[in-house]
Amino acid sequence: MLKYSRPITFVKQFSERLRHVRKLRGLSQAELARAAKISQSAISNYENASRRDSRSLLDLAAILKVNVVWLGQGVGPMDTPEDQPIENLRPAAGLVSEHSMWPFNTVSPSDYWALTPTARTTIEDAVSSLVRSLSKKDQKR
């Protein structure tokens, strides 16, 4: 079996890596900006390298489902394995910023990611159902 030791993506700069993975995930700049709760112009500035340091790096990596070190520095594998805890992509519990994508105040990312994939899917399905149900109730009012 051949082992491929060179990176598959030849993107050397943060701007190139961000653009590459955004397109790979099928997102527009506006969609990524909305998910990260930053402006579309900020994404554009990151991608054209006029803005170099991303204060939203953790959120961007989590949204794009890539390794934060790869996105920021180009080191290591691009993808973050789904079963690998990603608390290193988030601020520690109690330090969640207003720009963080972690939605729960009473459940830490590490507790969530310690669950089995099946348990996480069950939680996601339950929350999705609850959100749909509450959205319908709000629309009736």
Question: Describe it for me?
Answer:
- This protein is mainly α and 141 residues long.
- The protein has a domain at 14-102: 434 Repressor (Amino-terminal Domain), CATH 1.10.260.40.
- 50% of the residues lie in helices and 0% in strands.
- The chain contains seven helices and no strands.
- The protein has helices at 14-24, 29-36, 40-47, 57-64, 68-73, 109-113, 117-140.
- The relative contact order is 0.10.
- The model is unreliable at 1-6 and 83-100 (pLDDT under 50).
What letter string, H or E per element, gives the SSE order? HHHHHHH
For the record, the CATH class of the domain at 14-102 is Mainly Alpha
**Oligomeric status:** single chain
CATH topology of the domain at 14-102: 434 Repressor (Amino-terminal Domain)
Q: What is the CATH superfamily label of the domain at 14-102?
A: lambda repressor-like DNA-binding domains
CATH architecture descriptor name of the domain at 14-102? Orthogonal Bundle
Number of contiguous helices: 7
Low-confidence stretches: 1-6, 83-100
Q: What is the CA–CA distance across the termini?
A: 62 Å
- Residue share in helix: 40-55%
CA radius of gyration: 17 Å
What overall form do the CA principal axes indicate? globular
